[in-house]
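> forwarded from #structure-qc
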């Protein structure tokens, strides 16, 4: 079973760091991201794969403070995938991120490969192929019997697989992004937006983060520390939202609200579904 998440920590900013770069890993312990993804896949050259695996395993046991630590393995269809997963399972990071997962069978394969990992180690998968998009519902359903706990959009590989032309990719991906959120929410999974490659385009990143936050994504994967502040701001509740959540919780805690499914607050009807959303928001802020 995918483990329940008793820690509704913020996951606004997930920073990819090549595990082969020791200086980058050291820097990841200092920057204000919510999570670090130690990458063994795309950002690591073939000749550096073994060195990167050793470094990632060592880094998992280091102190990253409150940051969630994930390791992106190489695919099981590569020579490095199975050894990666064996080593990662023993190290026991918070999350293992599997690339290019396209079917329920592949989710189960990664889950089996992590059998020796601690129960708290979750599995997130990259949605970056046309087959994955076509089978999103069936893939997400595997959360009921595996460690699967999150969906991460991979826009670069997905755009290439779909043969999207430059300048049109974002518009073409929007319907898919919505489907990712729907599949995630239907099966109790986290959902993360993909990387934004134009590192100097702060306005573009800000717009993309705002859009994805509005659609319900939990956070965004990033490729450079300078992107962290923008993602953190976009995926954080505003002061007004926090005040609303506090008011909802207080209103339902009042004696006169006992046993009621809906109450009146500031001239509006508020239901217990709003209470659940408010409690989740406050728990995330506290985390």
């Amino acid at each position: 079973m995918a483990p329940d998440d008793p820690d509704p920590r913020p996951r606004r900013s997930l920073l990819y760091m090549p595990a082969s770069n020791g200086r980058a890993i050291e820097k990841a312990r200092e920057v204000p991201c919510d999570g670090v993804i130690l990458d063994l896949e795309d950002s690591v050259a073939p000749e550096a794969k073994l060195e990167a695996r050793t470094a990632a395993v060592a880094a998992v046991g280091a102190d990253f403070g409150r940051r969630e630590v994930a390791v992106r393995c190489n695919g099981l269809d590569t020579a490095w995938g199975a050894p990666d997963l064996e080593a990662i399972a023993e190290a026991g990071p918070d999350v293992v991120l599997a690339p290019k997962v396209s079917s329920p069978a592949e989710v189960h394969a990664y889950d089996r490969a992590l059998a020796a990992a601690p129960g708290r180690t979750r599995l997130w998968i990259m949605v970056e192929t046309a087959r994955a998009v076509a089978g999103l519902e069936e893939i997400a359903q595997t959360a009921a019997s595996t460690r699967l706990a999150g969906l991460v959009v991979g826009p670069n590989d997905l755009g290439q697989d779909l043969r999207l032309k430059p300048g049109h990719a974002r518009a073409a991906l929007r319907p898919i992004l919505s489907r990712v959120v729907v599949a995630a929410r239907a099966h109790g999974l986290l959902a993360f937006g993909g990387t934004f490659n134009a590192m100097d385009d702060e306005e573009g990143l800000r717009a993309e983060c705002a859009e994805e936050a509005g659609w319900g994504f939990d956070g965004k994967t990033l490729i450079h520390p300078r992107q962290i502040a923008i993602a953190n701001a976009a995926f954080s509740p505003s002061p007004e939202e926090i005040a609303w959540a506090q008011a909802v919780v207080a209103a339902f805690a009042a004696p006169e609200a006992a046993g009621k499914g809906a109450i009146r607050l500031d001239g509006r009807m508020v239901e217990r579904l709003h209470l659940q959303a408010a409690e989740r928001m406050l728990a995330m802020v506290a985390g």
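QC bot note: The first strand starts at residue 13 and ends at 18. The beta strands are 13-18, 35-39, 68-72, 95-98, 122-127, 148-153, 190-193, 219-222, 262-265, 268-271.
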